[in-house]
Amino acid sequence: MTTRIGIIGTGAIASVHLAAWRQMPGVELTGYYDVFPDAAQRAADRFGGRAFAALDELLKAVDLVDICTPGTVHKENVLAVAAAGVPIICEKPLARHLRDAEEMVEACARAGVPLFPAQVVRFFPQYARVKATIDAGAIGKPAVYRSVRAGSFPRPGGAFSSQYYADFAQSGGVILDVAIHDIDFARWCCGQVERVFTRGLTFANQPYRDHALITLRFTSGAIGHIEASWAHPRGNFRTRVEVAGDSGLVEWDSLDRPPLMVDLEDELAGHRHLNLSPTSVEDEPYYAELYHFVQVVRGEAQPIVTAQDGLEAVRVALAAIESLRTGRPVEPARLAN
Fold first, then answer.
1. CA 232, 238, 244: angle at the middle one, nearest 5?
2. What per-residue confidence (pLDDT) applies to 152?
3. CATH number of the domain bearing residue 254
4. What is the DSSP string of 9-25?
5. What is the CATH number of the domain that holds 47?
6. Residue 168: which domain range?
7. Is residue 140 part of a domain?
8. Coil/strand/helix, residue 268
9. Contact of 71 with 161, CB cutoff 8 Å
10. Ranges in the chain, pLDDT < 50
């Protein structure tokens, strides 16, 4: 069975997705739609398939749609694809505004259309191993979560992309574009977020140096600390995650030589320090993410990340932005649309 893939939006992130789609067995890159027709044609010339002049024509020709547009137009595209009854992969964040994200999830549920938010960090092998370690009970009940995602201001697609990220009204700044990765992963590890408190530079009129420190309180009683930054020198990108439980700690830091370090207190063996390498060629995270969604559509797997997960990540990210704006803690559940 061949799954026909349609791409909406052929900018910077689309090229990453397309490189993964091209390597995948059992799929066909059927077509592309972009508000800039020349961009869609360039994608077709490079990756195969054809450019479609109209979105509805693309939707008639495919089995699965991958939305790679800027977040400000995710809603209109998701609603159109849902109305056509085609399963959807949508890049993060689901939407710039909470009500838009809610409408997208509701529309897909009414139409019976799967909506998969592309929260790719769940598919990075190091992070997946952190989650598996927690689920196995190796560190006990999670109590403290810490993560870092820090680099320079993004300019992957030139002037247009730079203007988009620098415009807080469109991108949501470093919190909605960057920290949302770790917000989603923190929720996956520790559960629902009860309260958020944030400090940072988002409203300091320095979009090229945006930086945020987010403190999370989970309903479980655990606490989380997320650092997200566009203030690092170009070429310097770091990720880090650490989860401490009542029986041990699991940690990954891109600056360290071992891909994953686990410290455990073992009643029989005493203290154990493990360096683990879960990486392999097959574990490229975008490939793993997209292939997983194909498997779900085919009925071969249960989704690792759901539309509700994507919605809740947006909710918590927007609560963090509101906390930064007001200087007060914010409860995501009480966040106004």
1. 125
2. 92
3. 3.30.360.10
4. --SHHHHHHHHHHHH-T
5. 3.40.50.720
6. 121-280+306-334
7. yes
8. coil
9. no
10. 267-275, 278-279, 281
